[in-house]
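Following up on my earlier thread - several people asked me to post the actual chain instead of describing it. Fair enough. Here it is, all 623 residues.
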Amino acid sequence: MKRMTLVGGTLLLALAGGAAHADVDPQITSALKRVKATDYPSANSVLVIDDQNVVYQPDGKFTNTAHVATLVLTAAGKKDVATASLYYAKDAEKMEVLSAQVVKRDGTVVTVSPKDIQDVEQSGEENIYDPNGRALKVTYPGLAVGDVADITYRLTRVLPTRENYFNDIFVFQNDTPMLEASYNVAGPAALPLVAQIYHPERAKVTATKQTAGDRIHYSWSTRDAAQLVPETAMDEMTELPVLIVTTDPSWQHFSSWWAGVTAPQLEATPEIKAKVAELTKGKTTPEAKIRALYDFVAQDIRYRGLGVGPRTGYTPRKANETFTSRWGVCRDVSILLTSMLREAGLQAYPVLTNVGDPVLPKVAYDGFNHAIVAMPNKAGGWTYLDPTAKNNSSLLPGYEAEQDTLVSTTKGEPLTRIPALDPAANLGHATAITTINADGSMHSKIKLETKGMFDLIVRSTAAMMPEDQQKEVIEQIVHHALPGAKLKSYSISSALALFSPMTIEAEIEVPDAAPKAGDYRLLRSVVTSGALGLVETALPQLLGALPTRKYGLDAHVTFEYDQDETITLPAGTNIIALPNEAKTANKVTQMASACTKTDPTTGKCHRGFQLKSRFLDTAQYKE
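Reply from S.P.:
Thanks for posting it. Predicted structure:
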């Protein structure tokens, strides 16, 4: 055996020399003989083995030895499998490659040499750069379609994220078929696991538990797990067969633990006290004080995505360090605002939350990637503030609604969820003033006013897209419903005017909008034709346009979109029939459509849609 040690002992490579033949797991030999690409026509590779063997200690330290073998089925699969990145934090972990090899179709073995394993800087997760983030990049030499990339590696956690606690996550399904997968863990009987597996039926996961002396051995395994076919806007964490193991007994315990971690960091120094007094001087209401302190932290403290020190995920800097330096990551900024609010005589607490996927609720684990602030409200719930949000008129950006939160208090709090945002906060309102001429042609002036999400979309589009391209997009939307329409004029407000809502104005003409049908004319107006139907045309494309879904949908935002049109007909024209009124509503959506006759030659049409929750289950989606 040849051994190499790099980077102060944090990276160990233990690899055999370049033997032509070596020990090969029987499962790999079997797969090479029996698995064909035609068996999995939609897959580029197959996971032959995906095993993890974990041993944890009472102080939270652990080792995780993983064995992963992937059979390449296609050229695209070869490209995906040709390199593997094994991530670790150099201040807290060691990564060892115990063996890495390519098993050829004829059974011969090409061993990965040390020169094909590079220790590289890890790219930042989300918007945070961690100088301790590293990755072992393993390149498989000569990998070809029909070969197996086979690797065994060990991760050793020497500095636990939470001292005296252990937790982990394992997923039993992904976009590659899995022939065999297992998660095995051994730990002290005095610190037993709390475990929860979500959707075990989707991978037919079996579980065992055995006690041997002062240790408990747990095992979960599956065979022939089907390939995941993802759907647009699905939350994979909530839909896949996910195993979570933890030694933390409850969310309340987790909440109380973090309160203990953050308590010494919240001290208000004389400098902080003086600034709070300055900012709240003359402010007589809690609301005014909150706004003054929030605006100071949100605007004057720069968000800097840099992890500093051990256990950077949970240990913030002291409030005064952030106040003095005028920068910090989310946890630092939330601690500063909490400290200042408390100094002003207001109740406030730091909060853990997760931007993106929901936190799985049944057992307490490290499921967070962001920190904000909570204050108790009169209704018995919480009012949330995110001081990292810049140029935001509200205390909490709309995109953070319905996120799961863990408020940090000494008594401990359960996992809760931020309430859904009123759809009207993300409002798009299109109005049209339409005139029908005697020859059946139509002239219409259209205005789109925006708020919240709609404002952000229109503003971002205006900032990135040249005006001629914007006009092309508008023409395409209108032409989809009114093929003969001509865009006569178009204007959009300035994307740089941040505190003025974005508006779009357009003027169209349609030569034969109300064609004759005997003694009658049939009119398709701007609203009834769907020409303003941004929800009808754009939303299905964004969310997948599936008639039914196997998995729930997460739109990530609530919204409302209304269309109103006033139609004036030529003198002597009578409205003799109108479209049928339609209305439907459930817990998460509401739709309405109606046209009314206001006088013999004037009519009004309205269409409206509300999405009242970002989450739709499969039954609600079908409705």
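Confidence is low (pLDDT under 50) at residues 1-21. That should answer part of your original question.
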